Structure to design on (480 residues):
């Protein structure tokens, strides 16, 4: 009998259970998933209420990383996936308190439409001239690990970074671009510089390549997809499938302690005296894994604990359309750090996904919380609601009472892939060598997007069963 226990029932932990049970060879006899909360999905949290579909965490996943689409296909959810509204694709950037349309022609977030860049009011003329230097500056020879801010600043200038690139890129991590590691977040940007001699030149080449491949203007198909009634569909389908496959899924179980003897792990929780496992996947946040491992391996625990996390919140508010003075003619807006607002973005959900609000209603979602600025936020539900309402008043002129609102608070939710992250993860993986039968999964290590988390679950399972698979292969070869 082999028993695999997975700690954490977010998308990474549930995916790990799926990949373990569907292994073509050597599947474990028993898979148990233990989740502290009273629902599955972790950061994926969808509420369906009064005809609204409200996402508390992620609202889409990127389709070009294969693992999300592949899992959706295997679960029979793929035909329920759709992109965002192709008819009103504008995105805005707040600049000196006013919304400016994002210049068209951004490829991999790098501007490639010169007309659009010349016309935009987001960047001053000296700033635009500085961006043009990207064509003349040679690639840096060996800059070492750079922050996103330093890299983009060196190629396109600080102004373009702060006004345009920072709000787009840092928003994904709720991070500080001057801390985020380029290598760990957007490594392809450095590749563009090295291969093509400059960022814009590289982005233009990528755009041509994509047009050749797709036979269409880039951007004509949505890069981000989501199921009809929210991302929870993916979690729901996964849970149904796991039950069919025989997984034991237990909610409300907080794992508090681990012990290891020569062959087995003992898992202690608030619910069971002890559960024994031959293999273990820690798919909880890195700081939780650190806590569980600290008594046995303080060095590994310290490395895990050193991964910083940012707290974040989303506040969804519904209004009658007539109460929103500005036309909601796009997906929403992002707010550069230098604007000094507490919010970092606002999605116009009812335009981005028209079926997610009843006719005549507007659904808006405000994001609050940035790495390094958490102390300035009142993290209570009332405090966050007040910040969101103030943001909507200032930028969209909305003063009406919302028809309904939902506040989702995510303390220490977004791991920060700061400079040093790749080396730290390398040392964590090396430290895991001391722990046979144990693997880590989740958003703290190799990518925070949903497809990355799914992939992390798959890789954790592969790493746990590698030696068994190798033995099976050797036996098969020998008997041939
Ligand atoms: C507001 C927000 C918006 C986002 N937007 C997007 C987006 O649009 N697209 C995208 O791809 N990604 C997005 N992300 C990122 C993505 O949602 C997450 O990175 C991903 O869902 C994390 O999955 P996970 O399984 O690694 O971790 P989690 O979802 O955090 O799951 C870990 C689980 O472990 C459980 N746990 C913790 N401690 C214990 C314990 N001691 N015992 C048992 N269980 C425990 C937790 O309760 C939790 O359920 C967003 C994230 C947030 C917060």
């Amino acid at each position: 009998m082999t028993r695999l226990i997975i700690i954490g029932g977010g998308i990474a932990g549930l995916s790990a259970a799926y990949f373990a049970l569907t292994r073509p060879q050597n599947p474990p006899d028993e898979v148990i998933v233990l989740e502290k909360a009273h629902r599955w999905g972790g950061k994926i949290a969808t509420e369906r209420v009064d005809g609204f579909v409200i996402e508390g965490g992620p609202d889409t996943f990127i389709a070009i990383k294969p693992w999300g689409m592949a899992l959706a296909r295997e679960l029979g959810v793929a035909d329920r996936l759709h992109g965002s509204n192709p008819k009103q694709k504008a995105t805005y950037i707040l600049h000196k308190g006013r919304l400016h349309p994002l210049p068209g022609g951004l490829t991999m977030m790098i501007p490639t439409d010169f007309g659009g860049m010349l016309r935009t009011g987001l960047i001053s003329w000296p700033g635009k001239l500085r961006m043009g230097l990207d064509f003349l500056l040679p690639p840096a020879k060996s800059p070492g690990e750079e922050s996103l801010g330093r890299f983009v600043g060196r190629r396109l200038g600080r102004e373009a970074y702060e006004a345009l690139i920072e709000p787009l890129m840092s928003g994904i991590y709720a991070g500080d671009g001057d801390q985020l590691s380029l290598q760990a977040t957007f490594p392809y940007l450095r590749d563009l510089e090295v291969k093509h001699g400059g960022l814009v030149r590289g982005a233009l080449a990528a755009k041509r390549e994509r047009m050749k491949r797709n036979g269409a203007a880039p951007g004509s198909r949505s890069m981000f997809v989501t199921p009809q009634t929210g991302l929870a569909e993916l979690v729901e389908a996964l849970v149904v499938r796991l039950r069919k496959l025989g997984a034991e899924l237990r909610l409300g179980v907080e794992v508090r302690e681990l012990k290891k003897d020569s062959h087995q792990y003992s898992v202690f929780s608030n619910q069971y005296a002890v559960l024994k496992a031959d293999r273990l996947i820690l798919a909880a946040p890195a700081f939780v894994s650190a806590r569980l491992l600290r008594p046995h391996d303080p060095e590994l625990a310290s490395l895990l604990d050193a991964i910083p996390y940012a707290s974040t919140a989303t506040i969804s508010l519904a209004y009658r359309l007539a109460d929103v003075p500005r036309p909601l003619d796009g997906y929403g807006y992002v707010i550069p750090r230098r604007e000094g607002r507490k919010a970092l973005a606002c999605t116009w959900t009812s335009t981005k996904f028209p079926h997610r609000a009843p006719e005549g209603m507007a659904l808006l979602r405000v994001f609050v919380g940035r790495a390094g600025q958490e102390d300035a936020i009142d993290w209570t539900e009332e405090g966050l609601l007040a910040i969101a309402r103030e943001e909507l008043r200032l930028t969209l002129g909305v003063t009406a009472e919302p028809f309904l609102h939902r506040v989702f608070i995510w303390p220490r939710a977004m791991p920060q892939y700061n400079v040093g992250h790749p080396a730290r993860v390398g040392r964590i993986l090396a430290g895991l060598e001391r722990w046979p039968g144990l693997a880590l999964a989740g958003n703290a290590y190799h990518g925070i997007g949903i497809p990355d988390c799914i992939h992390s679950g798959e890789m954790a399972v592969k790493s746990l069963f590698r030696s068994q698979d190798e033995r099976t292969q050797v036996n098969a070869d020998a008997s041939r």
Summary: The mean pLDDT is 94.
